[in-house]
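FAQ: What does the model actually see?

It sees only this:
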Amino acid sequence: MSQSYNVAVVGATGAVGIEMIETLAKRNFPVKNLRLLASARSAGKKLAFKDEEIAVEELTHDSFKGVDIALFSAGGDISKEYAPSCVKAGAVMIDNSSAFRMDDKVPLVVPEANPEDVKWHQGIIANPNCSTIIMIVAVYPLHKAKGLKRLVAATYQATSGAGAKGMEEMLVQSRQLLDNEPIHPRVFAHRIGFNLIPHIDVFLDNMYTKEEMKMVNEGRKIMHHPNLKVSCTCVRVPIMRAHSEALNMEFDQEITPEEARAILSLAPGVTVVDDPANKRYPMPADASGMYDVLAGRIRQDVSRDDKRGLDMFISGDQLLKGAALNAVQIAELL
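And it is asked to produce this:
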């Protein structure tokens, strides 16, 4: 990559936007010029990139002139509104919202699984949902080897999934609970301090939430596996920034835990942490700040009479691999 690129970050002052800026710097992405874009109220605020301070500009339809790659993390409505201006200006939009993920004309990419899909973009590439990305990184290598047939997931999703305000609400409520003060939830439907909420996004007619169905539909699209059977329960937990998932998997072929560990130890973006005798297994505290998804507690499903079932527990940083890092990796593929 001797060439350098003009890059814009839309939603630069948000939790994911800040991670995108840091990830571009840490991975030495060849940035010629970095433009930081946000709402009018954030304009003028300065953010650090490498050794310089860059002023945030107000996002307008003229913001993309001369931009090669635009990383969006400002919500679906903003993405839909500004996508035409971005693409018309000649920039490739890498979008972190759900706006275009299920659009047949837009690639939905996890670089460890389907990097080749980047090739057919028409100006927009979608970054998948955070819990989907973390799941795919750990599950795709096993699917490639043994053919995944069915997946049942329970997620333990960090407050960072609701942005900086979600993380702040958890910290504030934790202090309030310790001081016996009254709790007034604003970001989440219920108290998140010392609590679990089995409700992320809105409920649909089938009684699953939109977040749960994202994992079903996005997983099928990324893995080019339209018949994959998936059932999921998504739970918000009082954790800062790493999502965890308990996965029960059924395969077309037999697979042992030893085989699974061997496959995952060679897989990109995965670190196997699976030594129960020494109390070593994936935990969100260890996954926070890490690029890799941690995979462990790999064991044969004892509810089956054959060797086609496995259970596994994974943890991955929601702000990094679940969002900013995946977007920057897509930019690297470009």
